[in-house]
């Protein structure tokens, strides 16, 4: 936030809630922090003086696509809310922000991020298992369309990855 009072207040509220907080009063100082650190969550005002919170979101997406963003604004508009959604912002909060609201929205964003990160880790583990097992695995959807074929299935059954998207029933009649 470019307002030192709000920056300090948010820092105190979130710090007392147990969060590690880094502060930036401008796009330049926020960019320096983004270059040095990876963040789970960024809380930013839409108006930053020398730029906008939406500019910050675009910069953040270039350096760290995993951080969640909450934008705060003293002048909420439909246009900025739509742009925030388009940029993948997790939450959009009009000022003034009550301390409990800030804590709750931050808690919810971090919880959501933790669940997303856990899901991604599980997916990566399952993909590693899928690729490494020696048994043939052919993954199909409810309509029996082939979604994935592991290396063992290609080797054992003579299938190839070009069959992905085709009907399993047409390739292997039951």
Mean pLDDT across all amino acids: 90
Termini separation (Å)? 63 Å
Quickly give the structural class.
alpha/beta
Number of helices: 7
Low-confidence stretches: none
Radius of gyration: 23 Å
Which secondary structure elements does this structure contain, and how are they paired or packed?
Layout: H1 4-16, H2 27-36, E1 41-45, H3 53-63, E2 68-73, H4 78-86, E3 91-94, H5 99-132, E4 138-140, E5 146-149, H6 151-157, H7 168-171
Parallel strand pairs: 1-2, 2-3
Antiparallel strand pairs: 4-5
Helix pairs in contact: 2-3
Description:
With 174 residues, this protein is of the alpha/beta class. The protein is built from 7 helices and 5 strands, in the order H-H-E-H-E-H-E-H-E-E-H-H. It has helices at residues 4-16, 27-36, 53-63, 78-86, 99-132, 151-157, 168-171; strands at 41-45, 68-73, 91-94, 138-140, 146-149. Strands 1-2-3 form a 3-stranded parallel beta sheet. A two-stranded antiparallel ribbon has the order 4-5. A hairpin with a 5-residue loop joins strand 4 (138-140) and strand 5. Helix 2 packs parallel to helix 3. It is elongated. It starts with a helix and ends with a helix. The model has no long low-confidence stretch (mean pLDDT 90).
